């Protein structure tokens, strides 16, 4: 939201600079994301001065040029060559001195240099209107009034003042601050100064020639509707002051009437709408809902089908405007308009939000109505707009103000205790400061005693309904930074459940990041077409789009989307991980589960002149999985082939009967959904099960052995149904004392082997903690292993 510094000064009188106000606004909860200097015209006439032409003679070498001597208040006159036919001695003129950059009305800015023109030195430029961006006239130089002060800045002569615009990151709960008045109200409360409201006493009803009755059929969707009529207006371009204010905050000027409605919206926070009165057939306005599918063409020249829940502003023949959202193409103010019907209403926020979302229309009006506007501002804004329209477009007020307000909004009644104020803020705020803050924010004090206050909170403060909200308002204006940190902190000991989930997650995240993985964070909403079990999907009742209609059931496709995005931008060597929740529906209800996913794709090392680029393989993924398992100190896992349909092949590590992690090669069917052609390796950890599994883990110190370990390898031919886990169990039963590790480092299945066979290459790590192993001991262990593999697994040892 953009707020103009000069505009704010119409509500509050303060000498604070824009930079000082920027800090104050941020400290009181209206975070200023940027502060930008805005100039009425490009360049702001910087460097241009008022000069006096002392002499003007004919250029000796050019018939159309003059040589002038100009006093610009520097003590020495400047010689300037000028081609304007109206330059003459005795004139006060605008001069661009050497090194000044001028910004013409059309074309690019250019810098003034000292130069020679047809042999005569020129030390500047005497300016025409279009050469400095003040207009389009190029008939000659600008001749200024005789009272212009020589040497003074041109921007002072033309009364140009720079403005500053605050970009405020307005949070959804601060609807009361969605205007210059709202921001000024907060500043006034902080600075302990009054807010100056616009003078509305000039509004006078001239006649009753344009009375247009209003009938509100749906008072729930439209609790208040105020209006009046103005006739005899002249639609034209707005004056510069109004265009400057709108341009400063990024609003495009259109015409004097529409610009006034936009001005009042940003000034007071109350949206208005002006209808061409001649387009109101039947001479009456109906606020109602229409039949489902009713056709309506909006201002953007788009035909829309209305919902039966859309509130519409209608005439006797049909709809004119989507209430609180967008106008119709046929009822708006046109160049030929001479009479207008001016609307200022309070619409139900929920109704406007649903309609805006349904039609994909986001406007300045809907932005404010959705969050809740001030129900007591409708008539004030109507009067303010009517006065300005009369000033800028002429005309007469041709009806009394109509104000349909069946059930007036009541202020919120809230009680606060001074004791609770001090307890929650952590500091005792003087009662006088509390009283001044509340009154400055527009909160009335019904009664007060030594214990606390009874308050009436205005309806425009939609987020202030409880005692704690009032305390937050007091703290916000007092300043969070003004609450001192005590020298003594009192706290009770708090035992936390081990392990600490956040600490554990950070440890594994650090581990993966240190090994070259990048963390990703994806949207929990995804598309139903990704689901392998659509009947278990948690569907969104009111989805934003068809691509975001269910909660994700796994982290696979969010990771694949990130991989596809990177690969499409020629970044194919990828290592990702993500912590996130997945959601499913079963007979017991909704289930939410924390997962950790790991992704590998592309090459495992960067391309280089002195080494070959090797593709990532299954065992690179297994290494990452084993690294995580090892870091978590999880032991006693069994392994089996995965049954996950999203993996074409893979392994599952089991903790009891539950799968702790499944990892393998992503199926081509899953890859095809995102047009990924390269192999992707994926691991899916059940993080909730991991946390439960290590809850009772104890860390024991083990001294590093003084004696070396020995590795031996075996290659064997096996039936395809024999798993690595079976081989590992055979090995561990064969040698329980000295066998430390069993790993598979190669698997081969192909046409060079007999049908139904596969080749495994296993490594065995042997170590004695008491002494160095001898070749005789090692050979004896390996013979036992070979014998048991042949006997129990039907293995054929390859030599």
How would you describe the overall organization of this protein?
With 799 residues, the protein is of the alpha+beta class. Helices cover 25% and strands 27% of the residues. It has 19 helices and 40 strands. The chain has a 7-stranded mixed beta sheet, sandwiched between helices. It has a 5-stranded antiparallel beta sheet with strand order 5-4-3-6-11. The chain has a 5-stranded mixed beta sheet with strand order 13-16-19-20-21. It is extended. The two termini are 77 Å apart.
Which key features would you list for this structure?
single chain, 799 residues, seven-stranded mixed β-sheet, alpha+beta, five-stranded antiparallel β-sheet
Summarize the structure.
With 799 residues, the protein is an alpha+beta fold. The mean pLDDT is 90. The longest helix is centred in the C-terminal third of the chain and has 19 residues, at 775-793.
The quaternary state of the protein chains shown equals single chain
Average pLDDT over all residues: 90
Q: Estimate the helix proportion, in percent.
A: 25-40%
Strand order of the largest sheet: 28-31-32-36-35-34-33
Strands, total number: 40
Pick out the low-confidence regions: none
Gyration radius, in Å: 39 Å
**End-to-end CA span:** 77 Å
**How would you classify the helix and strand content by structural class?**
alpha+beta
């Amino acid at each position: 939201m953009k707020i103009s510094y000069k505009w704010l000064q119409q509500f509050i009188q303060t000498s604070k600079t824009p930079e000082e106000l920027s800090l104050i606004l941020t400290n009181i909860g209206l975070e200023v994301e940027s502060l930008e200097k805005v100039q009425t015209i490009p360049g702001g006439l910087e460097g241009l001065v008022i000069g006096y032409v002392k002499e003007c003679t004919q250029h000796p070498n050019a018939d159309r040029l003059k040589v002038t001597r100009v006093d610009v208040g520097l003590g020495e006159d400047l010689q300037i060559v000028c081609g304007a036919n109206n330059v003459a001695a005795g004139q006060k003129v605008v001069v661009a001195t050497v090194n000044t950059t001028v910004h013409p009305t059309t074309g690019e800015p250019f810098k003034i240099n000292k130069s020679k023109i047809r042999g005569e030195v020129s030390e500047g430029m005497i300016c025409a209107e279009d050469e400095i961006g003040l207009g389009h006239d190029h008939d000659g130089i600008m001749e200024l009034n005789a009272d212009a002060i020589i040497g003074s800045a041109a921007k002072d002569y033309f009364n140009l003042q720079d403005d500053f615009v605050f970009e405020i990151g307005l949070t959804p709960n601060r609807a009361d601050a969605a205007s210059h008045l709202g921001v000024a109200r907060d500043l006034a409360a902080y600075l302990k100064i009054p807010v100056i409201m616009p003078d509305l006493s000039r509004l006078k009803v001239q006649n009753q020639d344009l009375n247009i009755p209003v009938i509100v059929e749906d008072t729930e969707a439209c609790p208040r509707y105020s209006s009046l009529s103005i006739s005899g207006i002249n639609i034209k371009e707005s004056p510069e002051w109004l265009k400057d204010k709108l341009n400063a905050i990024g609003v495009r000027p259109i015409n004097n009437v529409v610009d006034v409605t936009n001005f009042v919206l940003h000034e007071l926070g109350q949206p208005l709408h002006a209808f061409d009165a001649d387009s109101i057939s039947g001479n009456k306005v109906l606020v109602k809902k229409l039949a489902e599918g009713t056709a309506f063409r909006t201002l953007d020249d788009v035909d829309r089908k209305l919902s039966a829940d859309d509130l519409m502003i209608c005439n006797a023949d049909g709809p004119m405007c989507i209430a609180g959202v967008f106008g119709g193409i046929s009822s708006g103010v046109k160049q030929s308009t001479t009479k207008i019907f001016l609307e200022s209403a309070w619409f139900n926020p929920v109704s406007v939000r649903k309609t805006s979302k349904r039609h994909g229309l986001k406007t300045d009006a809907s932005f404010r109505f959705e969050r809740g506007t001030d129900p007591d501002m409708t008539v004030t804004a109507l009067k303010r707009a009517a006065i300005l329209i009369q000033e800028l477009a002429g005309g007469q007020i041709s009806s009394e103000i109509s104000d349909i307000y069946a059930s007036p909004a009541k202020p919120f009644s809230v009680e606060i205790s001074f004791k609770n104020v001090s307890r929650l803020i952590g500091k005792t705020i003087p009662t006088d400061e509390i009283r001044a803050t509340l009154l400055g924010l527009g909160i009335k004090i019904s009664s007060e005693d030594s214990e606390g206050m009874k308050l009436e909170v205005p309806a425009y403060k939609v987020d202030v309904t409880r005692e704690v909200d009032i305390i937050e308002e007091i703290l916000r204006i007092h300043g969070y930074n003004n609450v001192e940190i005590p020298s003594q902190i009192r706290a009770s000991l708090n035992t936390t459940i081990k392990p600490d989930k956040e600490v554990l997650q950070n440890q594994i995240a650090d581990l993966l990041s240190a090994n070259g993985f990048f963390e990703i964070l994806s949207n929990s909403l995804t598309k139903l077409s990704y689901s392998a079990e659509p009947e278990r999907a948690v569907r969104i009742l009111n989805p934003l789009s068809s691509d975001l209609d269910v909660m994700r059931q796994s982290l696979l496709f969010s990771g694949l989307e990130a991989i596809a995005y990177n690969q499409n931008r020629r970044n194919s060597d990828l290592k990702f991980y993500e912590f996130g929740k997945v959601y499913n529906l079963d007979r017991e209800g909704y289930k939410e589960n924390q997962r950790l996913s790991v992704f590998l794709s592309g090459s495992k090392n960067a391309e280089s002149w002195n080494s070959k680029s090797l593709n990532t393989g299954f065992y690179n993924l297994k290494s990452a999985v084993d690294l995580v398992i090892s870091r978590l100190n999880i032991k006693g896992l069994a392994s089996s082939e995965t049954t996950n349909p999203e993996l074409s092949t893979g392994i599952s590590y089991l903790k009891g009967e539950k799968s702790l992690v499944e990892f393998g090669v992503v199926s081509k069917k899953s890859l095809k959904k995102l047009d990924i052609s390269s192999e992707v390796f994926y691991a899916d950890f059940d993080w909730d099960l991991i946390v439960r599994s290590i809850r009772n883990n104890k860390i024991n110190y083990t001294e590093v052995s003084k004696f070396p370990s020995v590795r031996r390898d075996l290659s064997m031919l096996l039936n395809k149904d024999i798993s690595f886990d079976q081989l590992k169990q055979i090995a561990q039963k064969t040698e329980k004392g000295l066998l430390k590790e069993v790993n598979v480092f190669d698997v081969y299945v192909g046409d060079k082997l007999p049908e139904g066979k596969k080749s495994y290459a296993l490594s065995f790590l042997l170590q004695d903690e008491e002494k160095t192993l001898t070749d005789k001991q090692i050979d004896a262990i390996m013979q036992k292993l070979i014998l048991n593999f042949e006997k129990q697994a039907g293995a054929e040892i390859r030599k």
